[in-house]
Amino acid sequence: MTKVKNGGNPAKSLEDVKAEIKNHNSDIKARYGGRGVCTLKVNDRSISNATLTLIFTYPVNRDGIQKPEQYNVGMGSAHIPLQVTKAKNASNLLTHVLKNNRFSDNPIAFWDYLDYDVLGKVKKGIAPKVIGDLIEAYKLAFIADNKDAKSSESKWNNYRGRYLESLPSDAVLTSKVLIDFVNSLDDNSQATKAITAVKALLQYHDLERELGNALNCRKFTGKDKEERETYVPTDDEIIYVWENGFSLYKKDGHKKGGKQLHGTKAHQFVFGIMATYGIRAHEFWHVLNWHNPVNISSKEWVQVDSDDSDDSTDSEYGLGRVQIESDRIIPAFFDPDNEFPVLVISDDTKTGKRLAMPLSPIGDNWLERFHLKDELILPDIKEPLKVRKDYQSNGAGAIIRGLGCGEKSTIAWESLNVTKFSSHKLRHAYTHRGRCLGVNPWKLAQSQGHTLSTAESVYAKNLASQRTAAMLKEEWQRVYQQNKLPQLTKEQAVKISESLKAETTDINLIVSKLLEAIYG
Question: Which SUPFAM superfamilies does the annotation name (predicted)?
């Protein structure tokens, strides 16, 4: 071996380098399979003149024409150990990209990745740009362009800043940085907004042509959103969130006070009501009997309009309206003698006047558990009934945000070991609970302000084995406590529910059969 001026590293003989490259090629073929990998070749010369070459096949050429060809890319001198290491790393990177079809949605972006991220070339005429500097310049221009907005700073944060801050501010903007950013995103609507923000940043700095292809390295399907949309919390999860998600203490350990304390207590009360009664966010300011009884005449129609103009139940149930059979007085919700308080929802709501009934799991009373009759405490919202430009009332918007999954949520989701869910999912859970309790489907739909078809097609459609298994487990645990029966694991509950579902899809029949098995 001889010494060369390469940082003190000893140069290897041509035979040593060839053996090292041969081992590398054998290893990469063993790990990824023989076809479609990127291998290395050492030119058969003396060591001082030997060079390294990357060899791979790619289906699209640099002009974007689909033409599978073998490509040879020079990687420099083979007599410098550092260059050999770089060549092996490049071979590994390209093999991983090729075998995983990383650029299948935008094949031509592969060439930018090869040039600027693997080979480290610098684009002509473009000086390195630090991401933080690019964002700051764009922010100033964005705020100036939106100076007529109510709050240009807030608009920046909502539409651009919240997404751009996920980029490494100290890094130089390259295709690799953007590709890594895109691959870090969840597959949901927020990913689309994040990419829109980055694209706007590139457009402002005239970098879209050079770097824009990197944003197309991955196709988003909305799968994560779909999975979240079909998720419905169990009763145990709802209880857990109510008990542990509304902390009266700040992150620094000090107790909340004033508006912050009121807001937390109010949202906890609202959460409990929505879970127990399944009412909508805007309906809290339309309850007629919080403190006073309401007289409903037999001539009055409790309206349950269809959410679908083609709803087949309209003709069956008289356009979704249910006539009260006789005069009745609905007691005040906070009447201490009212043990089964029904909520009277007024006419000027999404689906009109109706009666909403409370539903608790078997053996539980959520009115007591959630302290719903202790005090009426609603979020302190200015003009809660005022409708905004997005057709949502101030009150409804505040509740949806306060009980949502985002940054403005009152719920301390980060401290809870549960899947996040929106306040609207409490209505879905209400439907599932009612079906599991055997409540008449039409009466259940009435209570929520829906026609039967809407309740079936939207709210009851996700009554799947996960929910069934959780419900079966809850029932078994209740019976276990009473009769000291063997504990039932989640896996056993799933197995039982699946075996019963093989016989029938009727949830009520499944529950009945399980109870028969439990009680013998």
Answer: DNA breaking-rejoining enzymes (SSF56349)
Beta bridge partners of 302: 322
**CB–CB of 39/91 below 8 Å?**
yes
In one-letter notation, the amino acid at residue 327 is D
DSSP letter for 66, please: E
Cβ atoms of 87 and 52 within 8 Å: the answer is: yes
Q: φ and ψ at 321, to 5 degrees?
A: -110, 140
Distances, alpha carbon 14 to alpha carbons 148, 442, 515, in Å: 70, 84, 78
> CA-to-CA distance for 110 and 213, rounded, in angstroms?
9
> Are the C-beta atoms of residues 170 and 128 closer than 8 Å to each other?
no
Q: Which residue has the tokens 């057709």?
A: 391
In sequence order, which residues have a C-beta less than 8 Å from that of residue 392 and are 6 or more positions away?
Answer: 282, 400
* Residue entry with tokens 């790990």: 31
pLDDT of 73 strictly over 60:
yes
Question: How close are the terminal C-alpha atoms of the chain, in Å?
Answer: 84
Directed axis angle between helix 81-99 and helix 14-32, to 10°? Answer: 20
**Pair 451, 458: CB distance under 8 Å:** no
Tokens 């990469």 sit on residue? 28
Torsion sign, CA atoms 28, 31, 34, 38: negative
Q: Which residues contact 431 (CB under 8 A, 6 or more apart)?
A: 278, 444, 448, 455, 459, 460
Q: Convert the pLDDT of each residue in 47-61 to its tens digit.
A: 677 889 999 999 988
Tell me how far apart the alpha carbons of residues 358 and 275 are, in angstroms, rounded to a whole number. 9
Q: Which residues pair with 73 in a beta bridge?
A: 54
- Choose which CATH entry (1.20.120, 2.60.40, 3.30.160, 3.40.50) describes domain 2-100: 3.30.160
Coil/strand/helix, residue 243: helix
Distance, CA of 510 to CA of 515 (rounded, Å): 9
Higher per-residue pLDDT: 256 or 7:
256
